[in-house]
From TrEMBL:
It holds the Pfam family MTS. This is tRNA1(Val) (adenine(37)-N6)-methyltransferase. Its EC number is 2.1.1.223. One of its GO terms (molecular function) is methyltransferase activity. InterPro entries: DNA_methylase_N6_adenine_CS, SAM-dependent_MTases_sf, Small_mtfrase_dom, tRNA_Adenine-N(6)_MTase, tRNA_adenine-N6_MeTrfase. Gene3D superfamilies: Vaccinia Virus protein VP39. It comes from Flavobacterium rhizophilum. It catalyses: adenosine(37) in tRNA1(Val) + S-adenosyl-L-methionine = N(6)-methyladenosine(37) in tRNA1(Val) + S-adenosyl-L-homocysteine + H(+). Residues 37-120 form the Methyltransferase small domain. Belongs to the methyltransferase superfamily. tRNA (adenine-N(6)-)-methyltransferase family. Specifically methylates the adenine in position 37 of tRNA(1)(Val) (anticodon cmo5UAC). GO terms for biological process: methylation. It is found in: Cytoplasm. Keywords: Cytoplasm, Methyltransferase, S-adenosyl-L-methionine, Transferase, tRNA processing.
Amino acid sequence: MFQFKQFTIQQDRCAMKVGTDGVLLGAWTPVSNNPFSILDIGAGTGLIALMMAQRSTAEQIDAIEIDDDAYEQAVENFEESKWGDRLFCYHAGLDEFVEEMHDEEYDIIVSNPPFYTENYSSGNEQRDKARFTESLPFEHLIEAAAILLSENGIFSVIIPFKEEEKFIAIATEFNLYPAKITRVKGTPETEIKRSLLAFTREQTETTIDELVIETSRHQYTPEYTELTKDFYLKL
């Protein structure tokens, strides 16, 4: 299990364990629009939905998870938290969910989507499914967000930096525009590894910045500490 300051994540049955990407997205996603409703697409352990519950007063926080074991684990993690009455997980694929819920609107939609596009197999089918874009292509994700996002909503993702340009181009086709971009590096010397992207329906000037996680092993930068200190026990 993984212990955070205000909640615990059990993850023994999840292919995708708690990782930096999920924590970054949960801590970084703008909540400046005072959301009433939030949707987490591809919940995994339920980490991001729980972080959004901690950071916002949203009364409705829904999550979708297609994998049986991950779904059951997310539900357990929701029920064990102090925000259980605000959190709900649907056991469904995204297409099925959109078909069923197309009249719903969410003020924030978050997703840490699967993204290894290379022809690679780890030998663990469950893990590969959680990691590969084949199980959730960017186009499907963006189209679903465009259908379900409220008028002043924010759609927020974390993806590999090398996919940033492509992802933004697809989003633009669905009239979703980048309001904020943060590019993430492991250390000052390493290449940019991830892009945090927040989209809105309104075209505004994009705020772009960079976040470095560590100066050296386990020496976290002030910026990373500031971003995650409400969650990590040791920060």
